[in-house]
């Protein structure tokens, strides 16, 4: 600083002299003497102006010098800080490797504090904490083990759970120093508990790849996923509970691709999906429960494509679908249950296209379809049950187009169809049962156009047709049974136009109401159709033949073993 002042003083003196001489020369030129000689006051004013100008120039020089010196000091200070941080890092890493669990616990908190202070190397500090969790896991020795072993396990687990708590604290909205934008690598970690409640995943990547959840609870309840990637790919769930209850998914991806669920529970109950993806593609369910009950899907995707269900339950009970897509395309169901009971489907898509059902249950009991699409197109039903009992259809589509029924049961018993479409076009029925017993048709369409019936049974027993349309147009009946026993035909249309009857049975005997009977093409063979022996309800009774035909033009060669009425 002394050198800077001396230099500025010298510059000021030299500047003062130079400016004074320049001013004196200019003021004494001939052009400035027309008013007489310079007065003493004028001379003093000029010298004052010169002095001030020179002083300003000197001050500017001093400022430049001081600034440069400050930059050097700051550089030295930054170097010192890095050195101090590095020394702290080395000491803390040594603590984490200490045999004494108390020292390790202190090391966990110290490393978190260093991560807060050292922004440039925050990721490195986080990596060290995650690496500790990835170290070989010693399983619980059990109650019969010696006290020393049980104490060692308990203290080791406390250190691991403390690391998880420290990380979770820095992921919450009220964190003093947030770590949300960092990456966390839990690859292969064995979790026997952990608390991520109310964490905010707004950036960064979280790897749980090949992690094992073998006990305890890992809790993401109330967490918010808005941009991050959370990867549970090939993880194993054998006993733990993983909670996502009331979590909010507005972006990013939670990936369970290839994960194995042999036990425990993954709970998304009450979660809200307004964007992003929950991906369980290729996952294997042999015993666990994945619970989406009460969840709300307004956007985004839940993907179960190519998943294998041999046991356990995936529960969408009372969930609300207003826009999202839930995809079970090409999934294989040999056991277990997928439950949409009492769900509300007002939009979006639930896709089972090309899925294979050889066992297990898919439940839509009591569900309300007012706008969504449920797609079983091309699915194969060789066993198991798909239930739509007491469901309400006021809009949307349930599509079985091109599906093959060789053994399963699809049950619409007691359903109310007053809108929308249930589509069985070009479906093949060689076995199994499709049951509309007790269903009410007051609107909408159930379409079997072009379907082939070579076996199995389609039940409309005690169904009530007061509106809407049931199409069997161009269907082919070579076997099996379509049963309308005790059905009521008081309105709407049941249409067999262009259908071919070479075998099987269509039982319309003993209807409760025959006011609007089904219609067949004129002159067409209805061999195998069992009609009532006495007309029921309405003035015309009997079978409706299209315009231009007479009732006698329909051949009743084999069906006049009419049921008693």
Describe the structure.
The protein has 565 residues and is α/β, with parallel strands linked by helices. Among the domains are: 79 residues, no CATH class; 209 residues, no CATH class. It is built from five helices and 37 strands. The strands form three sheets. The chain has a 19-stranded parallel sheet that branches. The chain has a 16-stranded parallel sheet that branches. Helix 1 packs antiparallel against helix 2 and helix 2 runs antiparallel to helix 3. The longest helix has 57 residues. The protein is elongated, with a radius of gyration of 41 Å. It starts with a helix and ends in a 20-residue tail after the last strand. The C terminus is likely disordered.
Helix and strand topology:
Elements: H1 2-27, H2 40-96, H3 101-117, H4 122-134, H5 147-169, E1 184-185, E2 190-191, E3 194-195, E4 200-201, E5 205-207, E6 212-213, E7 217-219, E8 224-225, E9 229-231, E10 236-237, E11 241-243, E12 248-255, E13 260-261, E14 265-267, E15 272-279, E16 284-291, E17 296-303, E18 308-315, E19 320-327, E20 332-339, E21 344-351, E22 356-363, E23 368-375, E24 380-387, E25 392-399, E26 404-411, E27 416-423, E28 428-435, E29 440-447, E30 452-459, E31 464-471, E32 476-483, E33 488-495, E34 500-507, E35 519-520, E36 529-530, E37 544-545
Parallel strand pairs: 1-5, 2-6, 3-7, 4-8, 5-9, 6-10, 7-11, 8-12, 9-12, 10-13, 11-14, 12-15, 13-16, 14-16, 15-17, 16-18, 17-19, 18-20, 19-21, 20-22, 21-23, 22-24, 23-25, 24-26, 25-27, 26-28, 27-29, 28-30, 29-31, 30-32, 31-33, 32-34, 34-36, 35-37
Helix pairs in contact: 1-2, 2-3, 3-4, 3-5
């Amino acid at each position: 600083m002394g050198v800077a002042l001396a230099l500025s003083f010298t510059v000021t003196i030299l500047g003062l002299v130079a400016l004074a001489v320049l001013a004196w020369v200019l003021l004494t030129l001939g052009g400035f003497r027309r008013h007489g000689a310079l007065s003493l006051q004028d001379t003093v004013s000029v010298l004052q102006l010169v002095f001030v100008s020179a002083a300003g120039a000197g001050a500017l020089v001093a400022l430049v010098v001081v600034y440069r010196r400050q930059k050097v000091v700051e550089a030295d200070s930054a170097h010192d800080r890095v050195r101090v941080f590095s020394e702290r890092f080395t000491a803390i890493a040594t603590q984490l490797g200490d045999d004494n669990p108390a020292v390790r616990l202190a090391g966990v908190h110290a490393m978190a504090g260093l991560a807060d202070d050292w922004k440039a190397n925050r990721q490195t500090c986080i990596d060290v904490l995650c690496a500790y969790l990835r170290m070989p896991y010693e399983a619980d020795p059990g109650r019969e083990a010696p006290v020393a072993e049980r104490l060692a396990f308990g203290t080791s687990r406390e250190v691991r759970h403390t690391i998880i708590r420290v990380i979770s604290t820095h992921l919450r909205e009220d964190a003093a120093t947030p770590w949300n934008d960092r990456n966390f690598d839990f690859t292969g970690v064995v979790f026997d508990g952990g608390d991520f409640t109310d964490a905010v995943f707004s950036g960064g990547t979280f790897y749980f790849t090949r992690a094992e959840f073998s006990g305890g609870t890992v809790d993401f309840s109330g967490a918010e996923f808005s941009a991050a990637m959370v990867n549970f790919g090939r993880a194993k769930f054998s006993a733990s509970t993983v909670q996502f209850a009331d979590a909010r998914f507005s972006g990013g991806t939670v990936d369970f691709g290839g994960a194995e669920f042999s036990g425990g529970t993954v709970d998304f109950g009450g979660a809200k999906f307004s964007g992003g993806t929950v991906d369980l593609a290729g996952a294997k369910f042999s015993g666990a429960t994945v619970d989406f009950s009460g969840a709300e899907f307004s956007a985004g995707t839940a993907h179960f494509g190519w998943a294998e269900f041999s046991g356990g339950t995936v529960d969408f009970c009372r969930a609300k679908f207003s826009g999202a897509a839930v995809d079970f395309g090409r999934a294989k169901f040999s056991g277990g249950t997928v439950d949409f009971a009492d769900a509300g489907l007002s939009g979006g898509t639930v896709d089972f296209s090309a899925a294979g059902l050889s066992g297990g249950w898919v439940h839509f009991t009591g569900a309300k379809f007012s706008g969504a699409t449920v797609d079983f197109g091309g699915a194969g039903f060789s066993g198991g049950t798909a239930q739509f009992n007491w469901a309400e259809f006021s809009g949307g589509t349930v599509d079985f187009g091109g599906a093959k029924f060789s053994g399963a049961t699809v049950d619409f018993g007691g359903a109310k169809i007053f809108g929308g479409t249930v589509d069985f076009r070009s479906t093949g029925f060689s076995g199994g049962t499709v049951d509309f017993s007790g269903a009410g048709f007051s609107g909408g369409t159930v379409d079997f156009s072009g379907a082939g019936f070579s076996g199995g049974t389609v039940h409309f027993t005690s169904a009530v047709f007061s509106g809407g349309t049931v199409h069997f147009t161009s269907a082919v009946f070579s076997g099996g049974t379509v049963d309308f026993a005790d059905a009521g035909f008081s309105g709407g249309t049941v249409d067999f136009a262009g259908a071919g009857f070479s075998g099987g049975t269509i039982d319309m005997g003993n209807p409760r109401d025959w006011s609007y009977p089904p219609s067949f093409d004129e002159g067409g063979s209805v061999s195998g159709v069992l009609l009532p022996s006495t007309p029921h309800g309405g003035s015309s009774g009997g079978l409706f033949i299209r315009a231009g035909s007479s009732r006698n033009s329909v051949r009743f060669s084999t069906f006049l073993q009419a049921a008693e009425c």
